[in-house]
Amino acid sequence: MPRINVLPQQIAELIAAGEVVERPASVVKELLENAIDAGATSITAEIRGGGIHYIRITDNGCGIEKDDVQKAFLPHATSKVKTAEDLDRVLTLGFRGEALSSIAAVSRVEVLTRTKEDDSGTAYAIAGGEELKNESAGCPLGTTIVVRDLFYNTPARMKFLKRDISEANAVADVVDRLALSHPEISFRFLREGKQTLLTPGDGKLMSAIYAVFGKTFADGLVEVHYTLDHVQIDGYICRPISARPSRTMQFFFLNGRWIKSRSMSAAMENAYKNAIMVGRFPSCVLNVSVPTHLVDVNVHPTKTEVRFSDDRKITSCLYYAVRSALQSDDEKKQVDLARLTQKPKPAAVQLQMVEDETDASEPIVSVPKGNLPQRRDDFWSKMPASDYRSVKKTQLSSPKADNPFLYKESDDLLASFDRRNELKAKAKADAPVSEKRQNEPAGDLPDVLMEKAKKPQVLPKNVQITEQPQPPKLRLIGEAFRTYIICEFDGKLCLIDKHAAHERVIFNRLKAQSGEKGKQVLLSPVTLLVSKAEYAAILENLDAFAACGFTLEDFGSDTVVVRECPMMIDPADVQDLVLEITENLMQSKSDVQSERIDRMIATTACKAAIKAGNRNDSAELLALAERVLYHEDVRFCPHGRPVVIEMSRYELEKQFGRIQ
């Protein structure tokens, strides 16, 4: 039986740090929440090296007393909870007392703080849980915490961190969420020495949304304000036309705390039913205010998961809040045609060149209607080049001449073509003999040439001419439900899924082409505003996008510019396609590069292929059927669904009872 040992304090601190401090974003989250709880109205966050090498949080809050600075780094030391009853009415973001001790256990921390009552502040330093400095120092009101060399004493944890740009994006995501949840605080974020975020701190949620996401996202929002049974919901939701292909832009806050809640997301999506397309998701920034005794926030150390005493009550309130906001915004745009028709029409003005003898000071006078150029009946007529050369120049020089090649509105179309054919025959009859012989068929050749043509061809020894077997005949029967092509091929009845078949054809073509072939340069580059997670996924896979025919560039501030895309993609679909590919990349992070590229090409092919229900003429259906049935490489779509279903004549007659 193994003995039970009490862990040393150093090991216990490392275990606690593993629960709280996962990456630099966790450190920034805990320190910013402490600054908010301290009553700060202005907070500055700065990182370098993705937050792994340097993190600095500065606030103008209440500060820390000199005697409490050392206590703040002890495990389970907090000023926000004193009794067990306080856990039922937690109003602060932090309360567990684990953040500072966990951060100090795996990094080098420096603190500079001063309260309003003290004339001088305190400078404190701790590294790996060991105190290095505790002395008085001059400093402004508030607290500044600097964290350096995260995980310097735990290299195994360091190996699990991502690239600096990914870690920096995760930190920026934390800052954005806190800025949205507390619009009354001015947040400033510095990244590698450059300011990337500054919120006004005027208490208006729209101002914070505008600062975080920009004008395009803010213009597509609808305000929400709803109260039901002591549950209040405030914020903004997107209009149905601004729905996105993923849920990454859904932000839910509970009493000012960002949370993850599938039930809230499902309730909001139910409210959007029959308002947005399948596969599209609404975006929102909503704050839910509930009494503290109805929610338990002490579920997980990260405090992002909560439990409600009455979950149905919260989701019902959210559903009706969203429905009310959508109905209030559902106003059809009206066009006053009567007012538009009353606008004075501008007079027609003829532009004229000013000659030497013309007085340039004379005003340009509008031309009366009777002096406008007369319509020419032959203006829009078209003529082949061969026919044009055979027509006499005199006929073409005079617009009033009776040109047999010109089709007039009063003429019969068939009669016009007959006159054209007669003129062709006459031109051939008047042509020189040499031209006649070129146009004569093989049967009208001279006798000497005919005998030479009839003479059997002598082949070398061991050379035989073998006739290639004729391919099976294909007969197009029609289309069912505008989805399935029905045709007869090689004695079988074939049903072809036109979307799956076209998707596979495009997939094979994109796979055969390299990244530089089959690309089109967009006349107007597409600008995408994405979330921090999508932003990191795109920047990490720029090479994969290039292999699929996309050229993306980092535009800064969570914005990506698409400059080139595959030729088969409609430029109007580029935004949705890139976001859909990004969502797939975020879900399949463990795929190797080749599999990742195949998934991206499959998504591109699916977007570019014809859809079920589209109208296609017989020529298009026949061309697609020939591509499928005469080639063996089109049997399954990139997602594994069959393309063709065959039924032999024997099976068909057996179903009808013709064969027993």
Layout of secondary structure:
Layout: H1 9-20, H2 24-37, E1 42-48, E2 54-59, H3 66-69, H4 99-105, E3 108-114, E4 121-127, E5 130-137, E6 142-148, H5 155-158, H6 164-181, E7 186-191, E8 194-198, H7 205-213, H8 215-219, E9 221-228, E10 231-238, E11 250-254, E12 257-259, H9 262-271, E13 284-289, E14 295-296, E15 307-308, H10 311-329, H11 337-341, H12 385-390, H13 393-397, H14 413-429, H15 433-439, H16 447-454, E16 474-480, E17 484-489, E18 492-497, H17 498-512, E19 519-529, H18 532-540, H19 542-547, E20 551-554, E21 559-566, H20 574-587, H21 593-608, H22 618-629, E22 644-648, H23 649-655
Parallel strand pairs: 1-7, 11-13
Antiparallel strand pairs: 1-2, 2-6, 3-4, 3-6, 4-5, 7-8, 9-10, 10-13, 11-12, 14-15, 16-17, 17-18, 18-22, 19-21, 20-21
Helix pairs in contact: 1-4, 2-6, 6-7, 6-18, 9-10, 17-21, 17-22, 18-20, 20-21
Briefly summarize what is shown.
The protein has three domains: 9-198, 2-Layer Sandwich (Heat Shock Protein 90), CATH 3.30.565.10; 220-327, Ribosomal Protein S5, domain 2 (2-Layer Sandwich), CATH 3.30.230.10; 476-645, MutL, C-terminal domain, regulatory subdomain (Ribosomal Protein S8, Chain: A, domain 1, 2-Layer Sandwich).
